[in-house]
Amino acid sequence: MKTVIGIMLSIAVLISGCYKPRDPRINLKEGVRSDSLDGNIITRPIGAAFSTIIGEGIEINSVTTVKNKAGFMEVHVSGYNKAIGTRRFQYKVEWVDSKGLVLDSKTSTWLPVSATAKSSFSFYAVAPSQDAVDFKINTRQ
Amino acid sequence: MNAKLPVLFVSACALAFALGGCAAGTTNIDTVNDEGKAVMELDYRDFSQAASEMIQSMIRSGALNKKGGGRYVVATGRIVNDTMQRIDTDQLMAKVEEELMNSGLVTMTSAVGGKGAPDEMIYNTRDIRDSHEGDEFNKDTIAGKGQLIAPELSVSGKIFQKNLRYDNKQQQVEYYFQLKVSDLTSGLRLWQKESIIGKRGSNKSVPW
Predict the structure, then answer these.
(1) A75 vs A56, which has greater pLDDT?
(2) What band does B43 get if pLDDT is binned at 50, 70 and 90?
(3) What CATH number is given to the structural domain containing B68?
């Protein structure tokens, strides 16, 4: 029995070793791509349990601000969902003027984001007026 | 019969107490951080979400940037409620109008609109001017003819609903918010967006 398990794990490791992502911009979800260690039918439960135990979730990779055609500030946030399942959360952007005062805006409301498992995601927000020079982003489940 | 009276009384009291205990007390909604569960009908959170997406898209598109500077004069055209609910479309448009004006890109007009003039007093004062009651007013303070500014752009749209059977126990309700901005001189459409809010829930709840 131990020998069988050992062989199966070795095969899983070998299969996963063969998989190499070609282009980081393209995410092939499990079931679409070739078998890998985290997607293999034998090792997936172990990976899932491990992911849950260490609390893998959303990571923010970059926050970019630009001025759009109208001269309004925009913030573009991109991140990665390290969890094994889809992560849904909400975000709310508050815009701040040069005096550090929060600008009152109907656009400052909770908006949903759905991040696919083991995939990158992004969202953006546009300032309500040209007075905005900075922002604060809150998130919640 | 009399012996049963105390038993009946106690039972009635116990029932009233139990029912009273079940009734939920009234609380104000925390509209800033409302963590209440979703409902099948459109609620204020859905309108806030749709309005926020619309406004941000409209500003970002640059369609409201007037060539040569200045602000466009914008009228709210017809917003059709094609859902099964009694919706006042101002729930969406009041937010959009407020934000567009605060953005500094446009000025809204109250003289014309899809539902008639948003402020009837504009025409009421003119009716007074042209009637014998006008003599009671200082002529210099009554609006003269040819003073109203015509809108250059119009925002119009539609909210509609589609009900689908999801399975034996659940239904799916899709709400579509569609807005568009048109140039009233050329008739050209400058901007358009659709925002979808979908809900899935029990067949027992009726979304209207």
Answers:
(1) A75
(2) very high
(3) 3.40.50
What digits encode the pLDDT tens for the residues B141-155? 999 999 999 999 999
Is residue A19 scored above 60 in pLDDT?
A: no
What is the nearest CA distance from A104 to chain B, expressed in angstroms? 9
Label residue B14 by pLDDT band (50, 70, 90): low
Sort out which chain A residues have CB atoms less than 8 A from B99's CB and list them.
105-107, 128
CA atoms A127, A129, A132, A137: torsion sign: negative
The reply to whether B55 touches chain A by the CB within 8 Å rule is yes
The verdict on residue B54 lying in a domain is: yes
Average pLDDT, chain A: 82
- Residue B36 contacts A where some CB pair is shorter than 8 Å: no
CB B178 within 8 A of CB B43: no
Q: Are residues A69 and A121 in the same domain?
A: yes
Name the residue of chain A whose CA is nearest to B49's CA: A111
- Output the six-digit token pair for A86: 């889809």
- Contact (CB, 8 A) for A47 and A106: no
Hey, are the CB atoms on A109 and B55 less than 8 Å from each other? no
- Bridge partners of B160, per DSSP, are B82, B176
Residue A15 lies in domain: 2-53
The answer to the question of residue B171 being in a domain is yes
Largest CA distance in chain A: 70
Contacting residues of B for A72, CB less than 8 Å apart: 59-60, 103
Q: Domain tally for chain A?
A: 2
Q: Shortest CB distance from A70 goes to which of B45, B48, B59?
A: B59
- What domain range is B70 assigned to? 39-139+147-202
ipTM associated with this complex: 0.78
B97 within 8 A of B76, measured Cβ to Cβ: yes
Q: How far is A16 from chain B (nearest CA, A)?
A: 38
- The reply to whether A49 and A77 lie within a common domain is no
A68 and A12, same structural domain?
A: no
